[in-house]
């Protein structure tokens, strides 16, 4: 039986630290989902941010927060399966940041959803580039 007492000594995050970090990420995702739902109903102050490229940059600030947290946490996670899941989340957030930056630079916003993201339950904020 492997003893986990040495994980912190070896620089890995302990269970409580990982749970706290994951809860913070979950709350951030929930907050983002609430903003997205309210925005879809045009009932959110988010729509006071104009023009649309500025809205995308505002969203990117939240996505960037998640990226920074994941980058800090991942090297300290010993469990390979959890690390792989966090890597997938990190990659997805980086892709969405890049996509939003591209649209903001172009001044274009598309409200279509990528079907592959919808199937996984994580809708894109923008459709495919034109």
Question: How would you describe this protein?
Answer:
The chain contains 4 helices and no strands. Helix 1 (15-40) packs antiparallel against helix 2 and helix 2 runs antiparallel to helix 3 (80-106). The protein starts with 14 loop residues before the first helix and ends in a 10-residue tail after the last helix. The protein has one domain (15-120). The protein has helices spanning 15-40, 52-73, 80-106, 115-120. 62% of the residues lie in helices and 0% in strands. By secondary structure, it is mainly α.
Topology:
Layout: H1 15-40, H2 52-73, H3 80-106, H4 115-120
Helix pairs in contact: 1-2, 2-3
Could you write a compact summary of the structure shown?
This protein is 62% helix and 0% strand. It is mainly alpha-helical and 130 residues long.
> Can you tell me the overall shape?
elongated
Question: Biggest β-sheet, characterized?
Answer: none
Q: What is the arithmetic mean of pLDDT?
A: 76
Order of helices and strands: HHHH
Low-confidence stretches: 110-130
Q: Total number of helical segments?
A: 4
Total domain count: 1
Structural class: mainly alpha
Residues in β-strands, percent? under 5%
- Give the distance, in angstroms, between the N- and C-terminal Cα atoms: 55 Å
- The amount of helix comes to 55-70%
Name the assembly state. Answer: single chain
Indicate the radius of gyration in whole angstroms.
17 Å
């Amino acid at each position: 039986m492997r003893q986990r007492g040495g994980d912190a000594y070896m620089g890995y995050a302990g269970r409580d630290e990982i749970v706290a970090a994951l809860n913070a990420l979950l709350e951030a995702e929930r907050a983002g989902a609430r903003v997205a739902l309210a925005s879809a109903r045009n009932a959110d102050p988010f729509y006071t941010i104009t023009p649309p490229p500025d809205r995308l940059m505002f969203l990117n600030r939240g996505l960037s927060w998640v990226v920074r947290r994941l980058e800090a946490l991942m090297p300290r996670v010993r469990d390979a399966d959890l690390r792989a899941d966090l890597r997938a989340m990190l990659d997805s957030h980086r892709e969405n940041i890049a996509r939003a930056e591209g649209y903001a630079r172009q001044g274009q916003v598309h409200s279509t959803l990528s079907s592959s993201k919808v199937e996984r339950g994580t809708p894109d904020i923008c459709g495919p580039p034109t």
